[in-house]
Amino acid sequence: TGKIRNNGLIEVPMGITLREIVEEMGGGVPDGEVKAVQTGGPSGGCIPKSMLDTPVDYDSLRAVGSMMGSGGMVVMDTETSMVEVAQFYMEFCRGETCGKCVPCRTGTVQLYALLSKILAGQATEADLTVMEDLCHVVCETSLCGLGMTAPNPVLSTLRYFKHEYTDLLKRVPVSANGRGH
């Protein structure tokens, strides 16, 4: 699904590449080009166009920061904001947490808040560091699969599209001596 000519349900053999699915079966992106493919449902990762030759199997998807998950795929075109994509999936995961463990219950809320701060142009480089660190804490200390994988969209977009985050950071004015105020 997503920004692709042919949306729908397909069954493919394990090991087929993302490119074969997106370009041959999906018909590619109408009026544009692929920017990324998100696999595995809401807690899967976003894989950049440069990695479309990745085979669709458990190990290969895990190696690039995603997962098989539900088997779903969402294609994004070059007009898509990857920070907005990460926020969208984090909003979903935040709403799905059962609340049993603190890392998932509060971590997803904090990650969503940090993504919102970034999109509002109010975040700093330090906020990006905190967000990435928090992603790892949530992954490593959550009790269930949702908490362990909820940060995947954030981590994968930071890994492959970090420039989109840094472009949104709050600009600290620089004084004549070269230091920020």
- Give the uncertain stretches in residue-range form: none
CATH overall fold name of the largest domain: de novo design (two linked rop proteins)
Global mean pLDDT: 93
Q: What is the radius of gyration? A: 17 Å
Structural class per helix/strand content?
Answer: mainly alpha
- Gross morphology: globular
Helix-strand topology string: HEEHEHHHHH
What is the architecture of the largest domain at the second tier of CATH? Up-down Bundle
Number of domains: 2
Spatially, the strands of the biggest sheet line up as 2-1-3
In terms of DSSP E residues, the strand content is 5-15%
Helix content: 40-55%
Number of helices: 7
Textual characterization of the structure:
The protein folds into 2 domains: 18-77, Ubiquitin-like (UB roll); 82-166, de novo design (two linked rop proteins) (Up-down Bundle), CATH 1.20.1440. Helix content is 46%, strand content 8%. It has 7 helices and 3 strands. The chain has helices at 18-25, 58-63, 82-96, 102-119, 125-141, 145-149, 152-166; strands at residues 34-39, 46-48, 73-77. The protein has a 3-stranded antiparallel sheet with strand order 2-1-3.
